[in-house]
Amino acid sequence: MGAEVRWLINVIISSCLCAVLATIPHRKFEYKYSFKPPYLAQKDGSVPFWEYGGNAIASAENVRVAPSLRSQKGAIWTKSKTNFDWWEVDLVFRVTGRGRIGADGLAFWYTENKGAYDGPVFGSSDKWVGLGVFFDSFDNDNKHNNPYIMAMVNDGTREFDHANDGSSQMLSGCVKDFRNKPFPTRARIEYYMNTLTVLFHNGMTNSEQDYEICLRVENIFLPKTGYFGVSAATGGLADDHDVLHFLTTSLYPPGTQPPAPSTQGHKLTPEEEVKLTQEYQEYQKKLDHQKEEYKKEHPGAVKDPESEFEDWFESDSQRELRQIFSGQSQILDQVKLLSQKLDEVVGRQERALGLISNIHAAGGVPQQVGVQPGVPTGQQPVLIDTIRRHEVDAVLANQNNIIAQTRELRGFLVEIHTKAESLLQKSPPADTSNVLRELKDGIGALKQQQVPLNAPLNTCPSCVTPLMLFLGFAGHLVIMFIYLLYRDNKGAQAKKFY
Ligand SMILES: [Ca+2]
Ligand SMILES: [Ca+2]
C-alpha cells in the first residue's frame, strides 16, 4: 500500500516537473555574439567577432564605448547577423563620471543593419529598423526623470526625439540610476516569443540575483535576424561608458532544438570541417601565445581576482565619498537654517534695543508701542517700568538730608553729654549754696509771716491746750496701772497650778 502511494506521489511530482520544464526554453550560449574579460580585446586591439569604431576603445578588460571627454561617440557591432529567433543578452556595464549629472548615455541595439559608429542617437544611427534600449543619463526634457532606461522599436521611419527624451516614442521605461555604482550595473534584455523583457541590476551588490523588472512588453515583432550593437555618446557633460560583458544566449522553445551544425543552412564538407578545426586551433595557439607575451611584457598588469576586488573596494570608497558628500550637504542645510534663526534673533535684539532707546528718549515714560513688523500680534513688547533719574535724585537728596540731620542730632547729644559732665563736676557746692540760699529765703519768708503775740491761742487749730495734755497723761497712767494689776493676777494663777 505504502509503496503504491509513494509511486503515485512520484508520478505527480514528475508530471509537474515535466509541465514546468515544458515552458522553460532551451538555452545556448552564442560566443560569436558575446565578449567578456579577460582578454576581451586581442593584442592588436580587435575584439573577436566584433567591430568597433568612432571613439570606442577596447581593452583586455572592457570596451570603453565612449570615454569621459566632451562630444565623444562610439559603437561596437557584431560582425555577423544572428541565426536564431529568440535571445537573451546580459549586458554588464559601468557609467561613471565625476559630475553629479552625466551625459549622454548608452544604447543597446538589435537592428536589421549595422548602425553607424558616430551617429546621432547615443552614438549610432537614427531611423533604425529594430530595437534600441537606451540608458539615458541626461535629462533633456527637464522632467527630473533621468537616468532613465527605455525601449523603443523603430521601423526605419522615425527620428529619435532627443528634446523629449523619446518619451512619446518609447514602448516603456523605468527610472533607474545606473551611474557611479559600487559594482557594475547589469541589464538582462530578453526577446522571447514576441515578448520583450528588460531586467535591471542596480550594481549596489555583486550578487547575480538582484535583478528588478524594468519593462515587459508583449507583441513585439523584431527583424527575424539582425546585428547586436552597443553605442554611447557624451555631450557637454561626459561619463565613461564601459561595457564589461556582452553575453548572448539563444533561446529555443520546448520542442524545438538548436540546429546542429550539420543541419545549419548548409552541410559542412569534411574539408571545411578540417579547415575550421585548423582555424580554431591556430586561433587558440595565437591566443595562448599572446597571453604569454602579455604576461611577460606586463608582469604587474595581469590582474588576479583579488585585485579585481580592490577595484570594487575603490568603488566602495567612491560610494562612501558620495555618502559623506550627502551628509555634508545635510549639515550645510542645517547651518543655513541656524544662520537664518540667528539673523532673526539679532533682528529681535535690535528691535528691543530700539525700544529701550525710545523709552530713554521719552524721559523714562514707557511708550505704548504699536505692533512692530515681525512681532506677532499676540506678543506685545513688555515694557518694564524701572526707577527713573529724577526719582533716584530725590532719594539721594532725602538720604543726604537724613545724614545731615543725624549729624546735627549727634552734635546736640555730644553737647548735652559735656554739659552733664560739667554739671556733675560742679554740682555739690552749687547745690549746698542753693539749699542754704533756699533755707535763708524760707526763714526770711517765715520772719515776714510771723504770727502777732496778741493773737488768741485758740485761733491756732494745731496747738494743744495744757488741759488736754494733763488729761492725756492721766489716761496713760490709768492704763499702765490696770495692766500691772492684770499681770500680777496672771502670775498668781500660774503658781497655783504647781
Ligand atoms: Ca536624454
Ligand atoms: Ca527626461
From TrEMBL:
Superkingdom as given in the UniProt entry: Eukaryota
GO terms of biological process kind: endoplasmic reticulum to Golgi vesicle-mediated transport
TM regions (residue ranges): 7-24, 467-486
Its membrane topology: Single-pass type I membrane protein
Domain L-type lectin-like: 27-251
CDD domains: lectin_ERGIC-53_ERGL
SUPFAM superfamilies in UniProt: Concanavalin A-like lectins/glucanases
Main location group: endoplasmic reticulum
Subcellular location per the Swiss-Prot or TrEMBL entry: Endoplasmic reticulum-Golgi intermediate compartment membrane
Pfam families: Lectin_leg-like (PF03388)
Signal peptide coordinates: none
A GO molecular-function annotation: D-mannose binding
Keywords: Disulfide bond, Lectin, Membrane, Signal, Transmembrane, Transmembrane helix
GO cellular component terms, semicolon-separated: COPII-coated ER to Golgi transport vesicle; endoplasmic reticulum membrane; endoplasmic reticulum-Golgi intermediate compartment membrane; Golgi membrane
UniProt protein name: Mannose binding lectin, putative
Organism: Riptortus pedestris (Bean bug)
Organism lineage string: Eukaryota, Metazoa, Ecdysozoa, Arthropoda, Hexapoda
